[in-house]
Each structure stands twice: as C-alpha cells, then as structure tokens.
Write the structure tokens for this entry.
Amino acid sequence: MMRITIRPFQEVRLLARPSRILRPFSSAARTLGTAETDTSVSSSSTASSSSRIGRISESLIRPSPTPHVSATEDKTTVSWPDGRTTTFDNYFLFDHCRCPKCFHSKTKQRLKELNQIPDDIRPVAVEVDNSGVHLSWSTSEEHKSTFPFEFLRRSAYDPPLSSYRDATEGRVLWNSKIAQSPPSVVYEDIIRSDDEALKSERAILKLLNRVHDFGFCFVNNVPATPEKTQELIEKIAPIRHTHYGGFWEFTADQSHGDLAYSNEGLPCHTDTTYFTDPAGLQIFHLLSHPSPPGTGGTTLLVDGFYTASLLSTLYPTSYSLLSRLRIPAHASGTEGTMLRPPLSQPAFRHDEKGQLTQVRWNNEDRGVLGQGWSAEEVKGWYQAARRYDELNKSEDAEYWVQLGPGTMLVIDNWRVMHGRSAFTGARQMCGAYVGADDWSSRRTALTKKHEIRKKSILDDDWSVGW
C-alpha cells in the first residue's frame, strides 16, 4: 500500500503554483481511533497504486541532452546521463511518430492506422543530437522519426520516470483552517470591455487555477441578479444542460424531486452521482435570503481529497474497498425522470497513473448495494463508508461559510463536497453546472495561450495528447 505524505495546514497563500499538501493532524488520528493494522490489499483492488492522492511531482531533473540510445529488433533503450535507463517497444515508438505522414499538424490527429504498422517494425539506424533521437525505420518506403528528449522522458513506462508525472502539480489539500484565507477572485477582473479581452482571460485562468488547486473559489462583487450571474458563468465556460435546465433559479418550492429544493439541511455530498459523467463544476450564487426573518442556510464545504487522504493513511483497506466496489446511484423523485447510470462507479476513481481524480459521494442518491459483491465486501463497504463519513463530518474537515448576495461560489464537483444547514425564510439561489471536460479544456487552452504556469519545452505537435 502506497502512503501519502501531507503537511499540516497552517494558512493558505494563494500562489500561482501552490506546492504543498497537508499531513493529517496527529490529534485527528487520535480522535478518530486506531488505524488499521491489516494493510493488506486485495489483488483486484486499485488502491495499491491509487492511494497516491495529491502527490506533488519531484523536482524536475534536467540532464544534459545527450543520452545513449540503442535498438534491437524488439525494443529501443535510452540510457540517460543521470544513470537511469528506459526501454520502449519499437511498435510504441513508431505508433507515436509525429512526422507529416503520421500526424496532422493542424488538427492534431493521427493519420496512421495500427494495421499499417508492420509487426516486425524496428529501427535500422539511430542518431542522437541536441534536438532529440532520430530513428530510421525498416519500412519499404523511407520513414524517419524524431523524438524530443522531453517526450521520451514524459512517456517513459518501462520503467516510468516519476519525476515527470506532474498531473497533480499545484494541488493543495485543505481542512477547516481554509477559512483563514479562502481562495477568491473579483468579478470586475473577469467582466471587462471587449478591448480588455486578454485581461479578462487571464482573470478567468486565475479563477480556474484556484479551482484546480483548492477545489473551489469565490467570485466577489457579483451583481445579485440572475442575468449578471449567468453572463459571468458563460464567460467562464459553457453551461451544461440537465433535467434541471441550463442556468437555474430555485427556492425551497420542491419544483424538482430533490432535497436541494427544500429547506432541509443537507450533509456534505457531490452532485449528480446519478449521471454517467457527473457535473464538473457546481456554481452557486445566493441572490437573497432576508435575515431576519430568515435563519440558517449556512454553506458547508469539505475537501473530499483531503478526507480521502486521511482514510488512506488511517484505514488503507477501507480506502481500497471504496476505490473498487461500484455504487449504484439514481434520481427518481422528479416526474418523468428516472436516472440510473448503466455503469456504476466506486466512490473513489483514479486516473491511469493511480492518482485520485474523482470523489463520488452522495448518500441521499445511493441505490441498492451488493449486486455482484461477496458477503465480506458488503460488510466491509459499510465499515469503510462509515469511516469516510466520520472523517467528512469531523470538525477538522468541515468549512462552514455564510454566503451572501454578491458572492458566487465555484466548486470542483469531482473533489469538493458541499452541503448546507437547514433554513427558514425565503432563500433564492441561482447557478449552473459546467462539464468537467469543458472547464478543464478551458483552463488548459488559456494556460497555453497565456503561459502563466510552467511553459512546456515541447513544441506544438508534441505538447498535445497527454
């Protein structure tokens, strides 16, 4: 079982590239009970690699660009000046050739089919210079590929060069002390005149970077009207339409069969677990809640990645079960709507590198468990879920904030859970969903355009497809 290391959270500094994550408080470990002594993980579990939550990449090593490269009939080996060696299957390298015959530089798409690659493809000549590795191939027609060193470092798989696995770079795990300095931007920086479009884009990128880093961000000074709120959201990314509509306004009128449309308190949860592809961003703006006479309605935020990191450290077997066992979810309270994804998913989902990518946690929308599970897995899942629920409801994890008109809240729904306390009085909210792919694409495109974060040393053709 891989273990994460997390530094204690003392304060948040809103840096362009935050570089720290949190270590579970020792007091929290004592309060929450004794950690499991059995750290075994089922061979079918993903948690042996998936418990690498929020891992910050090692300092990038920049060796001189003169590795030694050799090739055989099956593989090509790169020996780096720092002493490391990586091996590539020849088929893999030829498949990733980005010469004009193989890759369209305008559309950034492959032009070569897999069945066009000979089974016995191999380099017949190898050259190395400052621009990279040049391979001439054993094809009937002359074919030469050039691979930049940075591509070979980043794509290495046998073994992987972990120094270049930086997908979670900048992520900051947080707890209740985020209240000391929560991430925020201001409305006026985003909504600008047409002749200040570049400044507006930089402000949007600043917002999305903070959502990426912290899982949420406030936008202050937003005019308290539905029209201006919708304009702001559409400036950030396309609104996702669902059975709730696109941009929505709601009060506690039960117009939809969902507890959000009531005045009851809601425990922390992620939204739309009943979608095959849950919403990426959840965006709220409290337009009005006169107080008095209204009371309550305080917003709750919990960093699901932070509490998952605690679970991984304290109860690794429980983390494994929540990473492996698939939980059905449904939305059946609105007439004419019966949502139940054909593919159920576990509470914790991980990317191809084993890093935690998504938390799907909604007790209210959870369906009937146990299909295809063993009796031991049913019992184990309930124990794991209770432990995770306890961590989420701890004083250490809960960040409570009273929203008011003029403050829009943007939440990464794949990471940060939200809830609220019960309320009285007339409370009017508006907001929208944004797809995960849409806001990620917007952030990546703006980063590339404005080069605010680490500039890639790969050229345009080689910087895509990761």
